[in-house]
Amino acid sequence: MTYVSSEVLTVKSQGLWELVGNTPLVRLKSFEKPGVKLYAKCEMFNPGGSIKDRPALRIILDAIKSGKLTKEKKLLDATSGNTGVAYSMLAASLGYGVVMVSPANISPIKLAKMKAFGAEVILTDPLEGMDGAIDRAREIYETSPEKYFYADQYSNPANPRAHYESTGPEIWKQTKGLITHFVAGVGTSGTLQGTAAFLREKNPRLTVVEVQPESEFHGIEGLKHMASAYRPQIYREDVADMRIFVETEKAVAAAEKLMLVEGVAAGYSGGAALTAALELIEQIDEGVVVVILPDSLSNHISGGGHRR
Description:
This protein is of the alpha/beta class. The chain has two domains: 8-45 and 161-299, Rossmann fold, CATH 3.40.50; 53-150, Rossmann fold. It contains eight helices and ten strands. It has helices spanning 53-66, 82-94, 108-116, 129-143, 158-174, 190-202, 248-262, 268-283, and strands spanning 25-27, 36-42, 74-78, 97-103, 120-124, 148-150, 181-185, 207-213, 242-246, 287-293. The strands form two sheets. It has a six-stranded mixed beta sheet with strand order 1-2-10-7-8-9, with helices on both faces. β1 and β2 (36-42) form a beta hairpin. α1 crosses α5 (158-174), α2 runs parallel beside α3 and α7 packs across α8 (268-283). It starts with 24 loop residues before the first strand and ends in a 15-residue tail after the last strand.
């Protein structure tokens, strides 16, 4: 029988929440051109599998500190999937209950993850999209405010602050301050708003590229077509220098190509951001471009292959 040395057991243990962030920055040489370097911030390495671990953690910790979230209340929010997984995972680790409201056509994998972490999930009409889920979450809260902490990721300032405090500083450090262009999709818009705010303080000449789906009827889960949807209160149009609209088919194709040529399994929102980054690269002669890959392709597919 083998015994573990007592010295091994002295290693400092970590709470799950301490593992959020510090994700790798991966160079994507296959997509570069002379004079331009392209890096991907791979957020699928967060414990919950997506970038949404960052704002979910900040929202939960702030709510506990302020007394808005107690053991007698459940955390309530509308989600397209990733934030719901993050809430459910982190709340479970901290001993809080969660109620998530999502469109019925969300990824079955994300739905299964939320339920596995003990979340109660209320599904809404898929034809009403995220706006319908938001309306339902607000209705639930307004009916019984004493039962819930309504996190409201779309207007909660803790959302962009999480990225100002973590994503931005990490990218600045990882690129040694050489980043010239930052590319990210917008759903709540927290990632773009918070990260850009920090990076702009460090480099006022930074170019910020916002990525949206091409139309209201799209299949890029997690992203919003702002002209046709509820605009998050935290969203500001003037943050971006450029705005690139991406077709669903191109986002899917980019995600698949990224997996085949670089071995990076990004989801379709990451594919959309990569498509925009490649369009940007065609327009510049030099620079260091960083693109956000919010989650993994494994959050979107199951079984024998890619969606066609």
